Description:
The protein is mainly α. It contains three helices and two strands.
Amino acid sequence: QELYSRLVGTNPSTFQGRSPREQKRFEQHPVENVTFVEAARFCNRLSVAEGLDVMYAITPTSITLKKGNGYRLPTKD
């Protein structure tokens, strides 16, 4: 959650912790409550931050996986 929040600027997770101590513990937990598009955008931002290739071409009507060395979401194949 900490990395997502730092790159995207928000944390949509339901489970964030109520106190500062709990929030510290949840920083290492995964983010939930994001759409596929939001997750793909996060992968692109993380790739750019680390100097890697952007893996998703995102338009209002489609998402296309590109070839490269950047971050992408896991798939069955």
